[in-house]
Design goal:
- It is built from no helices and eleven strands.
- It has strands spanning 3-7, 10-13, 18-25, 29-39, 46-52, 57-59, 68-75, 78-85, 94-105, 111-117, 121-126.
- A hairpin with a 6-residue loop joins strand 4 (29-39) and strand 5.
- The protein is elongated.
Length: 127
């Protein structure tokens, strides 16, 4: 079973800094990618940033490139993806959710794909 847990979030004044954390855990877990998405009120969910196991980093739109950064730690059966958000803007206000894709290994190393989401965390940026 795969668990995705987010930490961080809350309210912050524009221009400030905030870190969101995501932990993906499970037995015999092989994570191919981890990502942060966000959904603002009345808008569709959008990609913030995705990190693949190769190390490739893909940023979404929304003006986050240059302001947001990620750090990842993958060891044993736990994967951590931190989203470091600088110079926050009111338009960054959204529900932020962590996503992980990969496989779990069952009996005889049989792989079962997973695509799991955390419950999300609210970020409110006020002027």
């Amino acid at each position: 079973q795969v668990h995705v847990t987010e930490t961080g979030g809350g309210s912050v004044r524009a221009g400030r800094f905030m870190v969101l954390g995501c932990v993906v855990s499970g037995n015999r877990l092989q994570t191919n990618s981890m990502a942060w998405f966000r959904q603002a009120p009345g808008k569709q969910r959008e990609l913030v940033v995705r990190v693949r196991k190769t190390g490739e980093v893909e940023y979404g739109g929304g003006g986050v490139r240059g302001r947001f950064a990620v750090s990842r730690d993958a060891s044993d059966s736990k994967n951590v993806l931190n989203l470091e958000m600088s110079r926050l803007r009111p338009e960054d206000t959204a529900q932020y959710s962590c996503n992980a894709e990969g496989v779990t290994l069952g009996d005889w190393d049989r792989p079962s794909p997973f695509n799991s989401w955390g419950q999300g965390t609210q970020v409110i940026v006020f002027a």
